[in-house]
Amino acid sequence: MKPIDRTAPAQTHTLAFEFDLRHPPEKVWRALTDPVLLSEWLLPVIDFQPVVGAAFLFKTQPFPGWDGTVHCRMLEIDAPNKISYAWTVGDMELDTVVSFTLSPTATGTHMMLVQSGFKPEQKQNFGGARYGWNMMGSKLIALLERAA
User: How many CB atoms lie under 10 A from the CB of residue 29?
Assistant: First the structure.
């Protein structure tokens, strides 16, 4: 099972991925909100609190053009249905919003992942994020398969 990239080919300001997961929404929600699990599939997280207004960081190895830090602020929490946060990368002048929306299905959970707010001149950032979410989405699927 892999994430399905629903981003329109000409699209350059919003990424959208769909996941049909064989796990109940509560288990998927835990993977989105438990700092230990979140660090396993997304990026190492610091000071994560699922509380509207809370600031937190994703921090990984830097590479040329990026210091490895994503500054986030919790925008919306509706457990176990939706979580949204501001996703800001200062080095790249990237200021977007990441949202996960969960819906129960007969066989598990349908999850929509949307990252919006890319500017027209941020095509490289858009492509990098698209690649990253594809990779991290596959890691999320693997984590859900092995986690209790």
Answer: 21
